[in-house]
Design goal:
Chains A, B: Belongs to the isocitrate and isopropylmalate dehydrogenases family. The structure is a homodimer. Chain A is an alpha/beta fold. The first copy, chain A, has helices at 14-26, 40-46, 52-60, 73-83, 139-155, 173-188, 197-206, 218-232, 269-281, 285-301, 314-325, and strands spanning 4-10, 32-35, 63-68, 88-94, 107-113, 117-125, 130-138, 160-165, 191-196, 213-216, 239-243, 248-252. The first copy, chain A, has a ten-stranded mixed β-sheet, with helices on both faces. In chain A, a hairpin with a 4-residue loop joins β6 and β7 (130-138). β7 of chain A pairs antiparallel with β7 of chain B. The structure holds 3-isopropylmalic acid (2 copies). One 3-isopropylmalic acid (IPM) sits between chains B (73-74, 77-78, 222) and A (168-169, 198).
């Protein structure tokens, strides 16, 4: 059976890095693609950043490759994450030979809760003066994340993971989060450490090697993964996977970069690495490994895009990756 | 009139860095001190981490010098911040000659909202599965913070500040926060930029020189200031001031460091810098400047505590600072 992949370039450099990535995918697997729109441009034209047919395409696809969107990002990506019931966002952050990094030894993965926390989005303006947001933490979502984290640690050769949280302040909600995850880890015989998310920010900046796998609530994952991106040389390299039990959405952590959009020099590495995560998800393990190796070799030996000090175009980088696959 | 200062060493290295700091203060101003207890040790003895007489001493003092507490920190510092109505937490983060730093050019100040956000602490376990926390953002607290930020920028020679937030997800609450602060800034003719807190984490890690003054909600300030601490060489150097309209609590950002407590080698710099902020607050501007210069010279020329690669004790560092004051 040929898997069906929804493809959403989005806005800005999404229209450069996604086509480049499809050429890399074409070199290893034959998929059936469903090209659909989302983001600022389609919103400007139709009033709707997430057209119904896009939502439908993603819901019917085995996996989605997502580029990047602009101002409307939250209106696009949050409903899409919901639509595929992606309960975890996997965000690996590591450095590569040939790429300058603030912390060159970084190699970690953030497993971010992807459905609740402050993202549950229940807000009210109660009076002229007062507004509130309801932060939601459930035992069931925490348990599901914990099961995933245990599987992830097991299958990637880690002894355990570190829970990032703020349960000294958010005693009930992050209390439930930490307690539930610790309980699952102990049932499963996996080591679970924990750290306050503020202290972890200090530790990450000074010595990220002390962490392998970090498990955290939604907003903590948002901030800590962007911090990790800063440590490894910028957002141009970080892929991510929004994973549900049956479907997934694979997207670079970077945005649509209006400042360089249209110039054809965006770094496609993060999107190609996201495609490698898509290949993993669909059990094309050998193909995923081959794509990763080809990108790593290209990062080390060139050609490189300007963000990494080179002067190659997006397409030249993609060509080099494709060449190295054959 | 002699000002009254409440002194809370707390736990662990608090009992080392606070007495050292008092010797430095004694060299420049004569205060009346009220020595009181808080933290794990007193909780163990009496069941109460924040005894009534401590709360009373802080409420009656012109200012409080606070060391560090352990497991009970949230039970101590959050009610104390409330008690003095400290609506802002000022957290400067900069590097010093002689101190290794991940980002040696860092020089910024975080102005953290200090009364609400997720710290408002309204939580419920609604069912076996579901827990909630109410995040509170008011126009009045945002306005008060904004007025302070404008004054701060003015009197410290900055054109403006950058608001860190997540108003694409927390649309109503961080929406109110950002809009209110932008409005005050525009009334006051102060420049107000803004950035998503996740993007700011990337930028801080890669190039903190793009920020001077950051204004943010409570939890964002907690995390971003610890990140900044990591960039400038660790928590050993960061002071903070919890400032209300009439009172203030001055505390190092670091904790009570049980791993080195009792050895007499804790770095007193963060607490002495906090005392300098206390002197500023009470309008001892010359004395504050003198203390800062004396600590900076000591950081550059030694003696230094082990965390900075030296082998001096806490007291030897304090002696050196006192010597340089005379
Ligand atoms: C666009 C935004 C809603 C999103 C998030 O906060 O999750 C982004 O920052 C991310 O991390 O994917
Ligand atoms: C101890 C804790 C409640 C506190 C906070 O979160 O504010 C601390 O981390 C700080 O930053 O002063």
């Amino acid at each position: 059976m040929t898997e069906r992949i929804a493809v959403i370039p989005g806005d800005g450099i999404g229209h450069e890095v996604v086509p480049a990535t499809l050429r890399v995918l074409d070199a290893v697997v034959e998929f059936e693609y469903d090209h659909v729109e989302a983001g600022d441009a389609v919103a400007e034209r139709t009033g709707e950043p997430l057209p119904a047919e896009t939502l439908e395409a993603v819901t019917n696809a085995d996996a989605t490759l997502f580029g990047a969107t602009g101002e409307t990002s939250a209106d696009v990506i949050l409903p899409l994450r919901d639509a595929v019931d992606s309960f975890v966002n996997i965000r690996p952050a590591r450095t590569y030979p040939g790429v300058d990094a603030v912390q060159p030894e970084t190699d970690l993965v953030i497993l971010r809760e992807n459905t609740e926390g402050v993202y549950a989005g229940m807000e009210d303006r109660l009076t002229e003066d007062v507004s509130t947001l309801t932060r939601l933490v459930t035992q069931s979502a925490s348990r599901r994340l914990a099961e995933f984290a245990c599987d992830y640690a097991d299958s990637n050769g880690h002894d355990g993971f570190t829970i990032a949280h703020k349960n000294n302040v958010m005693r009930v909600t992050d209390g439930l989060f930490v307690d539930t995850i610790r309980e699952v880890a102990s049932e499963r015989g996996v080591d679970a450490d924990d750290a306050y998310m503020d202290a972890m920010a200090t530790h990450l900046a000074m010595d990220p090697t002390q962490y392998d796998v970090i498990v955290c609530p939604n907003l903590a994952g948002d901030v800590l993964s962007d911090l990790a991106a800063g440590l490894v040389g910028g957002l141009g390299l970080l892929p991510s996977a929004n994973v549900g039990s049956e479907r997934g959405i694979f997207e670079p952590v970077h945005g649509c970069a209006p400042d360089i959009a249209g110039e054809g020099v965006a770094n496609p590495a993060a999107t190609i690495f996201s495609a490698a995560m898509l290949l993993d998800f669909l059990d094309y393990d050998d193909e995923a490994a081959a794509v990763r190796t080809a990108v790593e070799t290209t990062l080390a030996e060139g050609p490189r895009t300007p963000d990494l000090g080179g002067n190659a175009t997006t397409d030249e980088v993609a060509d080099a990756v494709v060449d190295r696959l054959s």
